[in-house]
Amino acid sequence: MSGPPSGTGIVLAAYGRGALVLAGGETMHCALAGRKLRVVCGDEVGWRRDAGGTPTVHSLAPRRNGLERVDSRGRAEPVAANVDRLAIVVAPRPAPDWFVVDRYWAAALQAGIAALLIVNKDDLDGAPIAEEIANYRGLGLAVAAVGGHSGAGMEALRARLAAGATLLVGQSGVGKSTLVNALVPAADAQTAELTRDREGRHTTTTARRYRLGTDAAIIDAPGVRDFAPPARIARAAERGFVEIHALAAGCRFGDCQHLREPGCAIRAAVDAGTVSARRYESYRRLLRLYDRFAAH
């Protein structure tokens, strides 16, 4: 039997009834003890070796936070745990789905996690997305402009991500993989570790964690596109939109949903042009989604 008999570690990837765990600077494929134990990328876990020497995760430490999406039935589905920052990647092409960007940011706000908007492919014409980017800046969302291929802005981005765990999300084709490879030169080798189990078979993961440095990591979440945060708190949709939440106290009714109620400060601000009509529609879509889940 090689290595220590037990210890603690961080989940780099979870797949089926197994997980890749970073422990003491080494990675190992672990089984999960029992049928009820579930882990996600970023979890802190305890493990021990069984009689045959196979490492097995047997305990899960309390999570500082977690980012979740909802499935088709409205149930919460964890994506990653112990996240310090959510980085949303967009590019001039493919055209951004701003409603999905809004949902990403709403999820970060509701979880109390810092957010960053990364605008990739600075070699392309950014004029078509400039207005929306300016609006996000005005609302207080941090923005970083980079060129994954050219290297422009990458050192500044690396400095922004130098501490803590950053969850990287975005539409297909925006260059997330290029950014990961630029930030983590050994990403391909780490990916090989993450996607093969103890027998060398390929595995499917929800999210993959890459070591960015001693105190930093990037979590890539492939396939996490429609990212509606679970509605666990009263007026969850409102709290995910900073401009709506800030003005809501001015509504005539305390339980105003900002849809058709009289004396609504939000609709007045939309009419006046001080709140983006597109962002307001994004809020309405999220609220309708929650209503649909509640009806099930």
List descriptors.
29% helix; alpha/beta; 3 domains; Rossmann fold; 296 residues
Commentary on this structure:
This protein is α/β, with parallel strands linked by helices. It folds into 3 domains: 6-60, Beta Barrel (OB fold (Dihydrolipoamide Acetyltransferase, E2P)); 66-220, P-loop containing nucleotide triphosphate hydrolases (Rossmann fold, 3-Layer(aba) Sandwich); 236-295, Orthogonal Bundle (Ribonucleotide Reductase Protein R1, domain 1), CATH 1.10.40. The protein contains 9 helices and 13 strands. The strands form 3 sheets. A 6-stranded mixed β-sheet has the order 10-9-8-11-13-12, sandwiched between helices. β12 (208-213) and β13 (216-220) form a beta hairpin. The model has no long low-confidence stretch (mean pLDDT 87).
User: What's the tally of helices?
Assistant: 9
**Widest sheet: strand order?**
10-9-8-11-13-12
CATH superfamily of the largest domain: P-loop containing nucleotide triphosphate hydrolases
CATH architecture of the largest domain: 3-Layer(aba) Sandwich
Assess the beta-strand content as a share of residues.
25-35%
User: CATH topology of the largest domain, anyone?
Assistant: Rossmann fold
Class based on secondary structure composition and strand pairing: alpha/beta
